[in-house]
C-alpha cells in the first residue's frame, strides 16, 4: 500500500486522537488503582501527559461536574472527534482507500 500526502491528512490526526483517547482511558483505569496524590512514576507520567487534555475539556465543561466525569467526557470527546474526522475525510475525499 502506497501512502500519499493526501492519506496523511487523515492518518496523522487520527493517530494523535487515538493516542490521546487510549492514554485517557489508561489513566481512568489507573485512577481506580492509584490515589490521586500517588507518587508512583507510572501514575505521574500519565497525569503529566493527560492533564493538558483534561484542562481543555474542563474549560468547556460546567464547574459542577466532578473530575472523574471530566475524564470520561474527555474520552467521549476524543471518540467523537475521531468519528468526525472520518466523516470529514470521506466527505472531502482524503479517506484512505484500500487497494490490492
Structural write-up:
- By secondary structure, the chain is mainly α.
- The protein has one domain.
- Helices cover about 75% and strands about 0% of the residues.
- Helix 1 packs across helix 2, helix 1 packs antiparallel against helix 3 and helix 2 packs across helix 3.
- It is elongated, with a radius of gyration of 17 Å.
Describe the protein's topology.
Elements: H1 5-31, H2 41-60, H3 67-92
Helix pairs in contact: 1-2, 1-3, 2-3
Keywords:
single chain, 100 residues, mainly alpha, 3 helices, 73% helix, elongated
Total of domains:
1
- Say how many strands there are: 0
Return Rg in Å: 17 Å
- Choose one word for the global shape: elongated
How do the helices and strands follow one another from N- to C-terminus? HHH
Low confidence ranges: none
Oligomerization state: single chain
Number of helical stretches of at least 4 residues:
3
Biggest pleated-sheet summary? none
Distance between the termini: 8 Å
Q: What is the mean pLDDT?
A: 91
Strand content: under 5%
Determine the structural class based on helices, strands and strand pairing.
mainly alpha
Write a compact overview of the structure shown.
This protein is mainly alpha-helical.
Amino acid at each position: 500500500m502506497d501512502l500519499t500526502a493526501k492519506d496523511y491528512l487523515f492518518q496523522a490526526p487520527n493517530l494523535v486522537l487515538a493516542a490521546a483517547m487510549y492514554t485517557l482511558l489508561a489513566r481512568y483505569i489507573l485512577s481506580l488503582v492509584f490515589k490521586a496524590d500517588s507518587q508512583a512514576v507510572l501514575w505521574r507520567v500519565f497525569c503529566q501527559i493527560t492533564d493538558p487534555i483534561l484542562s481543555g475539556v474542563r474549560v468547556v465543561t460546567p464547574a459542577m461536574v466532578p473530575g472523574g466525569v471530566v475524564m470520561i467526557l474527555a474520552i467521549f470527546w476524543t471518540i467523537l472527534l475521531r468519528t468526525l474526522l472520518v466523516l470529514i475525510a470521506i466527505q472531502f475525499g482524503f479517506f484512505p482507500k484500500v487497494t490490492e
